[in-house]
């Protein structure tokens, strides 16, 4: 069983605008129960702001608490689902990469720190005054989304950009901004993560990725260390483990087949690698998860 990858058109009763969706969160989960009641991923960028409600949000096997003021921001491909303890309220919006980047040719979504790297936390917590401010902004853009006024799409994309800017300022309030202001290192890291996503099944050593980037392995490690305080080998291993967890939990394959899918020489080696990185065997992980 593959993890379902949802697209924007599945959430719309009609198509008032292409490549963007905005809704109150309570209406969203009521309307789309059948789509979001199990782990899934998306082919778009997603943002949710909670004004009420409690529960947990699992993103790529990491659990985060849901509470008023919490904002979650997901990139395409991340697997997630919700568990609510009390009734949630707030706003949700998502859009394709093209919807944003065709309007802002000189500014890319990965320039926002929460979309910059999968290593950066996919959430932030707003202070009460900031929560009220952004709640009003989202109410305004939601109202615009429901209407058919002149230049509606332009106003919506500008409003979402303004919201992203405010979220970035809140997200980086306690971060050393020097780490965010190195476009060369930022580009290398982004390209590296994309290369790992494409090749990690077969290529598990840093030298392959350094060669693809036309830099030395030493310099690549320097870039990764400087930007996210990890090694290239760690990034590769984490991507392999994430995919292993997805397959262990969301597929019906036996564990030996999963090892084969991930191109390990045999199950024993895969099990040893998985235990070294997670502290448990693949079988123990499957049992614990369920």
UniProtKB/TrEMBL annotation:
It holds the Pfam family HTH_18. This is AraC family transcriptional regulator. GO terms for molecular function: DNA-binding transcription factor activity; sequence-specific DNA binding. InterPro entries: AraC-bd (IPR003313), Homeodomain-like_sf (IPR009057), HTH-like (IPR037923), HTH_AraC (IPR018060), RmlC-like_jellyroll (IPR014710). The keyword tRNA-binding does not apply. Coiled coil: none annotated. PROSITE patterns: HTH_ARAC_FAMILY_2. It comes from Bizionia arctica. It comes from the Bacteria.
